[in-house]
Amino acid sequence: MFNKFVVIDLETTGNIPKKGDKIIQFAAVVIENGMITEQYSSLINPQKAIPVFIEELTGINDEMVINAPIFSEIAPKVISLLDGAYFVAHNVLFDLSFLQEELINANYEGFYGPVLDTVELARILYPTADGYKLSDLAEQENLRHDRPHQADSDAEVTAELLLIFLNRLMTLPRHTLKQLVPLAGGLKSDLQQLLDEMLDPLEGTEITLPQHIEIFKGIALKKTSPQPDFPVASRNTSYPENDEDKINILHKGFKSFEKRIGQFQMMDAVYNAFLTDRHLLIEAGTGVGKSLGYLLPAAYFSQQCKRPIVISTFTIPLQEQLLRKEIPFLNKLLPFNIQAALLKGRSHYLNLEKFHQTLLDENDNYDTTLTKMQILVWLTETETGDKDELNLSSGGQLFWDKVRNGQAVYETNSDWLEKDFFLKAKRDAATADLIITNHSLLLSDMTGKGPSLPRYDYAIIDEGHHLEKSATQFLGASLDYLSIRLFIGKFGTYDQSQLFYQMEEIVNRLAADKEIAVVPPFELNQLVLDLMYEIDEFFKLLVLYANTRLAAGQRLYRAKVPYFRFNNEKEGKAVSHSAERIAFLLKDLEQAIKERLEWIISEGMVLTSTQLNKLEEIQLFLTELADLRETVVACFLSESNHVKWIEIDSRSPQNITTFIAQPATVADKLKENLFNAKKAVIVTSASLTVNHSFQYILKGLGLDPVLTETVLIPSPFDYKKQVQLLIPEDLPEINTVTLDEFVISLAEQIISIAEAARGRMLILFTSYDMLKKTYELIKESGFLDDYVLMAQGISSGSPARLTRNFKRYDKAILLGTNSFWEGIDIPGEDLSCLCIVRLPFSSPEEPLTEAKSKLILERGGNPFIEYALPEAVLRFKQGFGRLIRTENDKGIIVVFDKRIITTKYGNSFFESIPPVSVRKGPVNELVQIIHTWI
């Protein structure tokens, strides 16, 4: 690549040059002939005060720039650097807009040459990357980035990334590059020009494909890897019953293997459960080696009985870990080869034929264009075609709906079936010994509602504490405003060029002078408009219904309000009547579309592949329209024992409104359709027992305690030596003071503890309102300005991204709720202090909690003992488990809720976690312990 590229990075006083924001630091790195040839940077006097938050972000203050040149003094240097070059930046429009403004103010013409955006390049060339921030990409490529938000450091890292990106472009198949060229015209930057310059010298030369690539119907695909040849050693499939035999097997995979009694105990329990056709609940504490504990006996049993075993997980990372790490490792240990396959729901997989057809479409929006380019590159890497590998924007997710796999209704080109990703996944699963899937597909198969798994009699459910909740959600239903409006928007009105308009185009081309006995387009258009209006009215009525049932003090952020169908008050009647109107409108729309499709097919005319593809898209919309109508009818117009409630957010009452209906109990369904239908199901997790008892989980899953084996294997870690659990006694009880008073005291104690622990601190909340108030108070105090303070729902990014950012900084504090109580893994010194603000009891006013409690009361039970306490203990165990992830970890747990020591039930929390050293006292004394311990 012989072009000249100049990578620019700027630090500025704000985001909008037109409103007077100025550059305070300029940096440029020049790349010529594929090498960095020059670097230049300078502080710049903005001739105005630098805002405090910019000073905190960049480390640049007014004193540092007071004697720096103004921009006009360095403008000639900037112009000379950019002469004949591509202007390159990470988010190029930001840097270019500032530079243009400053150059024009300095009486220069500005820069009008080609530009490249390294964010765009990263999204296209690394479609599976976790993130596209400069720091994310630097970490991914193992580049040093010591001073983020300083222009010289950022420019240098961006330049190194550009060189990597250019090299990546050169390695793509020429076929892929040619398909990227027309799409690149829709980008923010001039990638199209760069691609043309790369391809011009290759015109007329012989095309050599990389060994791992094949061209199929015009698309470059990664070839399917052949199954590895495993040495045919001993075909001994006898399960290693004694410990010595197990040790001999495991020695092959570990240089220094230490016998884990708990892991061996788990292996034997799993194997015997399969052998005797009995269900098994097995709690395995952190460090037991749970995955290998069930994989090894499952492999032996599968080989012996020649039956597949389904392994279901709740999270995608665990699925990937099993498939990419644990099972390949297992195959190194065993004297036989185990075939494993991952199977998900059909919509997870790309439909190549549909995607190929969209490449012919024109007038795409930016997100669609970028997503097509991402997928073209991804197809040279993926063997699965699984969407979960991709990092798509929200607009990219909408495009995926057009190209995802689905059951074909109209004629399809059977040639494409050869490379169908979903069919390949099903074929692999049909011949696999171990089939890895998720709880959702397991439940879908259980109820016969979706694409089924191969027939199986044996299953292992990992992350089993999620099974009841997953089943509750799966067997329930929800309606949210944004999803429904986006869904109807896919069909659109006649003037919006969506599915409606595209369907009418096909009708008009076929109709010519023929009479069509279907609803006229203007009537269909009015039907869509009426439906959109009624949906808006319906969700306004839901908000009105909810607000009339909220106490004045409750109207803070998020709230859940029970919904009762037979409420005779005017708000309840209005909701029911509106739902009825929506159901009729959905039925009419469904019928009108169906008539059009039937007419198109009845004409018997030959349709193009583009038209057939569009009909498939309309048919999928029709199926989903019928599902939506069924949900509305089930939730509002028919008999149901489901618990129903409305979730609202006072900051955006309509847009974030959701209606939810879920069964109060799923025990009977799970018993009938899963446990009674299978010979042996093993449910495992690190959190299944309360007070060493499995009673709560047995009831929740509908398992017979007499016919179900239970095994509890404690963690092998020495928690007495690794953990100090501290309970501050000078924090007021929350029910004795106002929320604001409690938060003030809480924030003060967090500040003291954070300073003693020097950051590396995760704080778990049960309430988002309390989290937000605490975050704001700590931020305003200024006491922790030296720390990186992050909060779920406030700092940008998913929980996974926040966790990655947390690990990146030495002095980091992360405030989390809900999803942070489990599933995140922060081993070692990255996390040394875990704070639990409140014992995680569900609010008794939560609709599902209230319904479960009512059922227990009706049969004469105690809702607190039988439901509220066990649920809180299991969640507490999950939160507790975030701190110690390896035998070398060491840390502090602070529980701010004194109920753990002042109530009788508090002992249930201690009894359910490993033995730890417990200290209580005023926070100033506990701070001294933290200083000594960490």
From TrEMBL:
Its family remark reads: Belongs to the helicase family. DinG subfamily. Type 2 sub-subfamily.
Tell me the function of this protein: 3'-5' exonuclease.
Which organism is the protein's source?
A: Neobacillus paridis
Q: Which GO terms describe its molecular function?
A: helicase activity
The highest taxon in the source lineage is: Bacteria
Matching NCBIfam families, A to Z? dinG_rel, dnaq, PRK08074.1
Which Enzyme Commission number(s) are listed?
Answer: 3.1.-.-
Extract the InterPro entries matched here. Answer: ATP-dep_Helicase_C (IPR006555), DinG (IPR006310), DinG/Rad3-like (IPR045028), DnaQ (IPR006054), Helic_SF1/SF2_ATP-bd_DinG/Rad3 (IPR014013), P-loop_NTPase (IPR027417), Ribonucl_H (IPR013520), RNaseH-like_sf (IPR012337)
Kindly give the SUPFAM superfamilies that the UniProt entry links to this protein.
Answer: P-loop containing nucleoside triphosphate hydrolases (SSF52540), Ribonuclease H-like (SSF53098)
Sorted keywords for this record are: ATP-binding, Exonuclease, Helicase, Hydrolase, Nuclease, Nucleotide-binding
Q: Where does ATP bind?
A: 284-291
Gene name of the record:
dinG
- The top EC class is hydrolase
| Residue stretches making up the Helicase ATP-binding domain | 249-531
HAMAP family in the cross-refs: DinG_exonucl
Name of the protein this chain belongs to: 3'-5' exonuclease DinG
